[in-house]
Design goal:
Elements: H1 10-13, H2 20-32, H3 40-58, H4 66-85, H5 97-117, H6 139-148, H7 160-176, H8 181-203, E1 215-220, H9 223-230, H10 238-241, E2 243-247, H11 248-263, H12 265-268, H13 273-279, H14 282-299, H15 308-317, H16 330-348, H17 358-380, H18 382-402, H19 404-407, H20 410-422, H21 443-452, H22 458-462, H23 473-489
Antiparallel strand pairs: 1-2
Helix pairs in contact: 2-3, 2-4, 2-5, 3-4, 4-5, 4-6, 5-7, 7-8, 7-11, 8-11, 8-13, 8-14, 11-14, 11-15, 14-15, 14-16, 15-16, 15-17, 16-17, 16-18, 16-23, 17-18, 17-20, 17-21, 18-20
Length: 505
């Protein structure tokens, strides 16, 4: 998943850097010399806009107030998007991929610099006549498709992390700007509708016998989504506010990346009370979407190989800070059930954690953290550990005995033993000496084991068990998730009057 791209853009933070508006003008000036369209109206427009840019670059004080600066930055984004982002030819087999990547990266950085200076530019609108290729829609709805058409494309795989980081950056910019909080729900809705449309389309398809990529040619966002966002018929905005995904591989990669961006811890764990309320509906949807992605990835693995550890990392971001013995919400139970499911699948197919390269080490660290978080959940909800641990611990112990690199990964093997101890029939009074927090070399894993607080749960175990909850609206949904968990773990459902140990003993 994406690296940490959600902070201030590097260009804006560089020492002795020019003011962002000047930097943006210079960026646009650099592309003016080689810009020429076959359309006379477009050439005339670009010539006029470049003249304005040059004038402001030479006399920055022409921008008298924040409103004029926002207006100017809107024009800069329009020009840069038209010339650079739309100038990237994805269907040209002879295009230089390095040049394509560099142009896209410059465009993304330019957008971040400009948005950082004037966040309100995202919601800037026009009368629909001011620019040749711009309607009345807010700027963000106009510019997002120009970036999304690159996301997941076979020629742009190196851009996945920067593009994911861009969307995280935009969401956080909106969260930080109090006057734009209303925009947060619209942006998250846009990304939700886009990823849902992609997943729904993929779920209705089947791979070809040859395992080759399949053409789909889906236009996004849908007219219905645009109408929901803009309050006007979406067909009025299709020409400049949509893009096309042409293959299954791009659709799957794009949906996964958008969901990863929305689930990023910097967003899901935001401290803003207003944004928390706006994002509160995201977690249940993200959990359901991860389950859908898992199914689609398994179906299309031969066409678009997808690391299972990536989904595990997303699932970790959706967990509560710690499991609560007193208040077990449906979302929390679903989050830990999904975590167990993903751990079980990675344990059954451990290829991506077996190597000694950087990717394998990162995947192993992600799984280690997931095992410890699952151990924490097992201490609070005994059902999770008793169902899941045998299908996770045993395969991983076997892999460690057969693959020297795993057996020598001491933090990893200790994480397995932590889950094994936490999921026994009786809560342990303490961890074994070799699995104490101080024995872990990775600081994050060490802290996660420390947070288990083993020894503090004995009192909780002695409290009277709560009465069996009556079936409610949420219970049916949870039953469905539990059934899926049993299916993946290849375990028989427990009889109503049975015990969880019955499943594995």
């Amino acid at each position: 998943m994406a690296a940490e791209h959600h902070g201030r853009p590097a260009a804006a933070a560089a020492p002795n850097a020019p003011p962002p508006s000047t930097l943006a003008a210079q960026l646009v000036e650099n592309i003016s010399a080689s810009t020429k369209s076959t359309r006379s109206d477009e050439n005339a427009e670009l010539k006029r806009l470049f003249a304005v840019i040059e004038k402001v670059k030479n006399k920055p004080d022409l921008l008298k107030d924040a409103e004029q600066r926002t207006e100017h930055n809107h024009m800069l984004i329009y020009v840069y998007a038209r010339v650079v982002l739309e100038g990237i030819k994805l269907d040209d087999p002879f295009a230089d991929r390095n040049h394509l990547r560099n142009e896209a990266l410059k465009a993304i950085n330019f957008l971040k610099v400009t948005i950082e200076e004037t966040p309100n530019v995202l919601s800037h609108t026009t009368d629909g006549k001011q620019f040749v290729f711009r309607g009345e829609e807010p700027l963000w709805i106009w510019v997002f498709p120009k970036i999304l058409r690159l996301l997941g494309h076979s020629r742009c795989l190196d851009l996945t992390a920067p593009i994911e980081g861009f969307f995280q950056f935009v969401i956080l910019a909106v969260i930080r700007t109090g006057s734009m909080w209303k925009l947060l729900s619209s942006i998250t809705l846009y990304l939700r509708e886009t990823s849902s449309a992609l997943l729904n389309h993929l779920q209705d398809m089947a791979p070809s016998a040859a395992g080759r990529d399949v053409s789909i040619d889906i236009t996004l966002p849908s007219a219905a989504a645009l109408e929901l966002l803009l309050g006007k018929p979406g067909t009025l905005f299709v020409q400049q506010t949509t893009y096309t995904v042409q293959h299954v591989s791009q659709a799957l990669r794009q949906a996964t990346t958008l969901i990863s961006a929305l689930a990023h811890h910097s967003i899901s764990k935001t401290s803003s009370s207003v944004s928390r309320s706006s994002l509160s509906e995201l977690t249940p949807w993200l959990l359901d979407s991860l389950l859908s992605i898992r199914a689609v990835q398994n179906t299309w693995q031969a066409v678009a190989p997808s690391p299972r550890a990536d989904l595990l990392e997303i699932a970790l971001n959706l967990l509560p800070n710690k499991p609560s013995p007193a208040r077990k919400s449906l979302a929390s139970q679903k989050a830990y059930a999904l975590l167990a499911l993903l751990c079980a699948e990675l344990s059954a197919h451990p290829d991506e954690i077996l190597g000694i390269d950087e990717k394998s080490l990162t995947a192993r660290k992600t799984l280690s953290l997931a095992l410890i978080r699952l151990a924490h959940a097992s201490l609070v909800d005994r059902e999770i550990g008793r169902i899941a641990a045998p299908k996770i611990v045993f395969p991983l112990e076997l892999a460690c005995s057969e693959v020297p690199s795993l057996g020598e990964a001491h933090d990893f093997s200790r994480s397995i033993r932590v889950l094994k101890q936490a999921s026994t029939s009786v809560v342990p009074d303490s961890l074994d000496p070799d699995t104490q927090p101080a024995r872990f070399t990775d600081p994050e894993l060490c802290q996660a084991v420390e947070d288990l607080g083993i020894g503090n749960h004995a009192a909780e175990e002695g409290e009277p068990a709560p009465k069996r909850r009556k079936v409610s609206m949420g219970a049916g949904e949870l039953d469905e998730w539990t059934a899926r968990l049993y299916e993946v773990l290849q375990a028989d459902p427990i009889p109503e009057n049975g015990t969880l140990e019955h499943t594995f003993l």
